[in-house]
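DATA SHEET
Item: assembly model
Revision: 1
Owner: S.N.
Input lines:
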Amino acid sequence: MAEIKYQTKPLDIWNEGKALRQQYYENYAKAHEKGGIRWAGGAWAYSAVPAGLGDDVWSLTGEPYGASVAFDKKFAARCHEAIEAKGFARDLCAYLRNYLGSIVLDEYVFGGKFPKPDFQWTTHICCSHAKWYQIASELEGGTPLFCIDVSTGLYQDFDERRREYVVNQLLDGINWLEKITGRDYDDEKLIQAVYNECEATSLWAEICAMNKTIPAPLDEKTMYSLYVFGTIMKHRPEAVAFYRKLRDEVQVRVDNKIAAVGNEQRRVITDTQPPWGFLEVFRYLESYGVVSVGSLYTFSLIGAWEVKDDGTWGPKTTPQEQGIDITTRRQALEILADWTHARPEWQHFYSAQKKSDMMLRIVREWQVDGVLLHYNRGCEGLSLNIAENRLAFKEAGVPVLPFEGNMGDEREFDLERTKKAVDSFLELLGVK
Amino acid sequence: MITAGIDFGAKNVKMVILDDGKIAGRGSTLTGFDLKIAVKDASEMALKAAKLKLDEIAHITETGIGQGSVEFAADSVSEVGANAKAGVKLLPSARTIIDVGAEEARAVKCDESGDMKDFVVNERCAAGAGAFVEAMSRALEVELEQMGPMSLKATEAVPMNAQCTVFAESEVVSLIHAQTPKPNIARAIHDAIAERVISMVRRLGITEDILLVGGLAYDVGFVDAMKRGLGVEVHVPEFPEYVSAYGAALIAQERAKE
Ligand code: SF4
């Protein structure tokens, strides 16, 4: 076991984050009691757009909800059984199965009946996304559904034509929202939500960039609980306020060398969602002083990044920092579309090479010694190309450990076998 | 100095005792359900062969699946780490050591000191390991020990698309019904396992010399399939199933000196 070299302490903001998350899921469930609106959709949906319907509009985003289900292994198993009994295959997205199973059981993982949304508002980027809410809608007895096709290719090709393709769908979507809710749409609220989303997602990147420091102020399993606000409410002022506070606290940790893991001696990154029910693997690594400082997934699932003048990755400059005054609906949607499609985590749907390049950049800039690649059977989207990424690491001489599993279905994860492979990896890293 | 390595395999527990680096005794027993009894039996066998008592051993290192189950072990090492160490000792030019045991296949790339440089382990499936041959020998109604020699008598390569033990078994049954000669089926089985193992090893990159260890290295049909599949020479040491335990004993020796 590695010796303690750095002081460490829990995050002061931890409980606040926990309460904020709980409150959010409760607000969604109880929205109708106060005359509010509920909608459901993917975590990558253009959530700032329904915000134009009012401040009392709450969303349930499917992937973080699916992850919450996965934490509760017994409930997850019941969800899988329920949806598989309806004929859905076991190799589909595990979040989708958790989510749909929860509808079939009519149980909300946070207690009570499953709170059906008033409408579904989502985007299509992987093949599960494309069917998820259609099926949810059918299971719920016909919830109105609006999908935005975002398969516009790499950001480098996101020209005006492609942006128009997205913006026109969003404009149609706003008309649709007005029609199905009977509410007037408020452009001012949309504009504020766009500012919020840009700031929250840029702040998250700023926080992740601080993990370039040795010792890392944050470990990845903690970051999993923190990026969640970018997946459930990235457009809301609460997310901005939380990330501002978190950024300030992490800065203090960096300045005072307060480590996430006091015995840090090697730094690794991972890829894709972890097997949520088995985060103890991270603790096992940490017992040998091996800390996971993040991943392309954790950094950029929601984080907005750009290449800075010195050639390194840093938080993307927000429209407000650029002095851009958003005044119209169209302008707001154009900025939002451009911001969204630049997201690094979307690029690898189109190019294995791009993903490898981004991961190798992280290895260099975050001073990483090795990589754990989760061959995640639960997510065809994010595990796309992962075997090619392994080859890229190998060519670059970066130690890499692939392990098989599933982010949300424990039947496909073998803890003991994984730990055994991790043992060999620890030896390879020279810490065991 | 006397050291020992104990390897907890899925099928057998093996122990190797070294006296100043030379093998003084070996012991092996079926793992069974009671791990403590298996450890006791294997160690008694090795101690008897070495004419030693347990408390005369300066350092014992364990490896294998049941790590933590050997009360008298001082520490542990992974199988790949142990294989790298032992492989280079047994064949100094070895740079890739492939270990195919009952339930698992693994490979390690190492340097001239026997230090691990990279490794791979097989996925969660027995179709690339010894348990597969056992299941198939039952389907063929052939003694396990006869599978290898029989395979070498094959006159024709029969393709087998087996992805897993369960499907492979039904494929073997179909081949039997199609009156395919048993030697040809035996070779098809060995080729199927070798193909899986080789595709795993290719992820590491094939660096010669190659040493094949683990229980399946006793099977001449499998060794032949590996040679044909890899297209290079495959070396097999004496007592291939003891290599991990031997490596653990070598590591015990290094650690005892530290
Ligand atoms: S990207 Fe993964 S988690 Fe998201 S919908 Fe697709 S398969 Fe599911």
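QC remark: Residues 1-91+241-258 of chain B form a domain with the Nucleotidyltransferase; domain 5 fold (CATH 3.30.420.40).
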